[in-house]
Amino acid sequence: MTSNAHWQEEAVCRTVDPEGLFAEAAEQRRIVALCASCPVQTECLVEALDNRIEFGVWGGMTERDRRALHRRRPGVASWRDVLEQARHTREQPRAS
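Request: output the structure for the sequence above.
Response:
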């Protein structure tokens, strides 16, 4: 995973009505689903987590999801490091 300073230019949601990113219920689920196909989902999520953005859908997570994650992992200094480690762990071949 590389850092992309201009990740917003590649975001799938850049053409979506910005109000939709701060919606609730069914609309929020639609945006979360949109994030799943986004090439910069991780960069977006890191932005929201590292900066403790309180509102809206970012990187496929709602504000409620992000608050819960912060409660579970209060000492995280860099969410990029955490997400890279998780990706690396997922990609490791499993022993049979």
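DSSP finds four helices and no strands in the chain.
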